[in-house]
């Protein structure tokens, strides 16, 4: 059995180094987008699982972890590697789908079944709908990865609002409810 690395805390206000900025710049290109959609998305959950979270395509530059959900319609387990950051104790994930016309399936899964695993830890997901909180979190997201600003510009033109989810640690979510 592979020992899992704890979910790394990602401060959205932290300054990024040169290597991070190069990786981010590549991720925002047409080639970077194609690589992410066709290679990273399909292989990162496997790579994350077999290395216990020690290695992904992002090489620790743009933070990502495996989100494990329950299929909205099928009820089957689903896994996808997605970027994230923290807001206090909570994890924040952005359902950008690379600025596509539709929301990613994992966002529909979280709405149907809010209990999930992220980076091997238990969470309860809530979509952020309050306008001020949504804007605050989206501004932080762009600080983590500038590409989220690109995706928002693309989706605004077609009338799609990119969902943002707050993942609250399962233990504290149970106490609050």
TrEMBL record:
UniProt cross-references to InterPro entries, sorted A to Z: F420H2_quin_Rdtase (IPR004378), Split_barrel_FMN-bd (IPR012349)
Annotated GO MF terms: coenzyme F420 binding; oxidoreductase activity
Annotated Gene Ontology cellular component terms: plasma membrane
Reaction catalysis annotation: oxidized coenzyme F420-(gamma-L-Glu)(n) + a quinol + H(+) = reduced coenzyme F420-(gamma-L-Glu)(n) + a quinone
Family: Belongs to the F420H(2)-dependent quinone reductase family.
UniProt-listed NCBIfam families: hi_GC_TIGR00026 (TIGR00026)
Protein name as catalogued: Deazaflavin-dependent oxidoreductase, nitroreductase family
């Amino acid at each position: 059995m592979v020992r899992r690395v704890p979910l790394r805390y990602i401060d959205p206000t932290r300054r990024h180094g040169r290597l991070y900025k190069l990786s981010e710049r590549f991720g925002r290109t047409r080639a970077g987008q194609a690589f992410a959609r066709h290679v990273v998305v399909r292989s990162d959950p496997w790579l994350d699982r077999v290395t216990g979270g020690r290695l992904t395509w992002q090489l620790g530059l743009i933070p990502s972890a495996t989100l494990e959900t329950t299929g909205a319609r099928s009820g089957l387990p689903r896994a996808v590697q997605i970027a994230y950051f923290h807001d206090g104790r909570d994890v924040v994930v952005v359902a950008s789908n690379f600025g596509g016309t539709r929301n990613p399936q994992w966002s529909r899964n979280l709405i149907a079944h809010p209990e999930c695993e992220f980076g091997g830890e238990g969470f309860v997901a809530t979509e952020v709908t309050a306008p001020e909180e949504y804007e605050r979190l989206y501004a932080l997201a762009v600080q983590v990865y500038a590409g989220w600003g690109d995706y928002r510009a693309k989706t605004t033109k077609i009338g799609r609002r990119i969902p943002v989810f707050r993942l609250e640690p399962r233990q504290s979510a149970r106490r609050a409810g």
